[in-house]
Amino acid sequence: MPGGTQYSLDVEDELVLHTAGGGVPLLEGDLARLDCRPRVLERDADSVRIAYRGALGALAAIRLYDVCGVVLAPIETAAPPSPDIVLARLRESLDRGALSAVATAEPVRFRVSPLRFGRWELRDLVARELGWVNDPSRWDVNLEVMGSRLAAQVGALHWSRRFAKLERVPASTNPVVAALMIRLLGPEAGDVVCDPCCGSGTLLFEAAATQPGVILVGGDVSRAALRAARRNLGRAALLYRGDAGALPLGGGTIHRLACNLPFGKRVGSHRENIGFYPALLAEVGRVLAPGGRAVALTEEKRLFRQTAGAVRGLRIERELTLSAGGLHPSVFVLRPNL
Q1: How many other C-beta atoms lie within 10 A of the C-beta of residue 43?
Q2: pLDDT of residue 262 exceeding 60
Q3: CA-to-CA distance for 38 and 175, rounded, in angstroms?
């Protein structure tokens, strides 16, 4: 987490957290497990607005959101937010809210994202009244519309500043989507967690970050991807080069399996997937231990359902549709048949 941020301070604020579309119920579940029990004020497909009272460090540790903003004012269609209300909320947050813990730089650097109206007026108002410096390249606070409200996004609570930055390869899993997938996977200490299409190792890294003590196994056909995975995972994982349709693993040896499958767009094609999906899912059914679980992300939803339904010994337990980066893939949760 960023240095200089006073995460141990107790704060009281109205905040909005953004996640991948469809991920709000899982995010709410993590919030409900906090000792301070934040109160949910409003939710939509990809964000939740909460009344938060407690140490900011507990909120910063949650992995299921990418951006957190201090709620400033509602956005009306006919008029910009009241400058007086915006300034009052910023000062309130600086006094006892989230900004008191994280806006410790002197002076605070900020930016104003493109708005429908009043962007430059808002920039000049904040600079004049609060003494903040407009610095879009190194901002501590970003004034941005989140849903139906203007919010002050907190730089130190952005995903990229709270958690390790990983090396990526084409079609790497979005980190918040990865966190949602691993939450559905539910690994436990001592579990063997496998990703047979591991790419740069995002899902394996997330599994280890979520549940220390797991045993990581990853495979990929790409040497470049495996090199990136090794740099991300160090020696914490057993990595191999191989086809996910022919796993070099014994039957019933994997407790948890996670994979981001080729969608047939940026990686692979629908024609290739027609052959690949049956081979992969047959292997998933073979290597999963009794009581095991698998999660798979794909936009080839119809093909996946049809293929999984034809695999003996495997069933779809749940399907969760997400929205991220203009795509709408589903996470399928698979279990061995009883």
Answers
A1: 16
A2: yes
A3: 24
In sequence order, what are the beta bridge partners of 314? 336
Cα distance between residue 154 and residue 159, in whole Å: 10
Amino acid identity for residue 168 in this structure:
R
Per CATH, 10-162 and 175-336 having the same topology is answered no
Residue at 14: amino acid letter: E
Q: Was domain 175-336 assigned CATH 3.40.50.150?
A: yes
The pTM for the full model equals 0.94
CA dist 11 and 98 (Å) reads 6
Taking CA atoms, 52 is separated from 37, 75, 159, in Å, by: 8, 22, 19
**CATH classification for the domain delimited by 10-162, as one of 3.30.450, 1.20.144, 3.30.2130, 2.60.120:** 3.30.2130
> Which comes out higher in pLDDT, residue 138 or 266?
138
The b-or-e profile of 200-239 (16+ CB within 10 A means b, else e) is bbbbbbbbbebbeebbbbbbbebeebbebbbebbeeebeb
Domain ranges in the chain are 10-162, 175-336
Q: Is the dihedral of CA 239, 190, 276, 205 positive or negative?
A: negative
Give the list of residues 6+ apart from residue 84 with CB closer than 8 angstroms, or none: none
pLDDT in tens, 108-163: 999 999 888 889 999 999 999 999 999 999 999 999 999 889 999 999 999 999 99
